[in-house]
Amino acid sequence: MKSIVLGVLSSFFFAFTFILNRSMELTGGSWIWSASLRFLFMLPFFLLIVYFRNNLKQLFITMKENIRIWVLWSFVGFVLFYVPITFAAAYGPSWLIAGTWQFTIIAGLLLTPLFSTMITTSNGLQRVRHTIPKRALIISSIIFIGILFIQSTQFQHSSLELLLLGFIPVIIATFAYPLGNRKMMEVCSGRLDTFQRILGMTIASTPFWLLLAGYGFISVGPPSIIQVQQTFIVAVCSGVIATSLFFFATDLARHSPEKLGAVEATQSTQVIFVMLGDVLWLASPFPSPVALTGVLIIMFGMIVHSLVSNKTKQQLKKAV
């Protein structure tokens, strides 16, 4: 239950990403700066956090052991996740981006067979590949139906180009984020805490953000003061607070594919927060009855996910 609560709380802070990225696009800011500045702003925050926790040396030693793997999965988990998200914000409203992002609920579960666990058998230690948790997939599909309800009224008023440019990049991101996150958890194997892992991935991906920033300076010029300020807010709310909460929640659930799927499914609540943000911040129309029905379906799916996850935990305790 703790991991579920942390997941929902992280989704609230993640919602700032979609709302502010769209706000920056509407005021003439480039997606290039929205992407690169967020992670460059995150770097000093996590450096200070890890430094004052006296964990910096351990992180550098661990990264040095396999720096190529760190760069690879940090690129997937951070760059291939956030660049498409900010790019899509230039072509679609925040409701479309946030709604499409909820496919990560399904994507995370579909990635399950790519991972395995060492278990003790009569023949000794054996590596067993995970299977897609069907029960979690069914529950996540309920949540996804709620997402479709929310988006249904909006699709009627969107062009094909807007839908594609605001849809396909986000679908790429929905697979990249859980894949990079899970692979790094696998690489760390519990040796690093949440803050160390985020800092390590931020450091490993920094060369890509510097290259993107350099390209942005040449192609579109420097960012405006307003964009710098809003990107800083995104970096703190989404990059520092939300990412820390979400990574900590996934760490708690990393040994159970079903519980991990439940934590990742909490990100569906972003749609609710983004919808409210659109109305209050960007002055978007209030959601229709159909969209509100979708919200209720999402809430129902989240409650079921939480109950199933908690029941599984209690069964495991009894078995032990």
Automatic annotation (TrEMBL):
Identify the keywords attached in UniProt to this record, alphabetized.
Answer: Membrane, Transmembrane, Transmembrane helix
Q: Which organism is it from?
A: Alkalihalobacterium chitinilyticum
Q: Which domain of life is it from?
A: Bacteria
What protein does this entry describe? Multidrug resistance efflux transporter family protein
State which residue ranges cross the membrane: 31-50, 70-89, 95-115, 136-153, 159-177, 198-218, 230-249, 261-283, 289-308
Q: Which InterPro entries match?
A: EmrE (IPR032713)
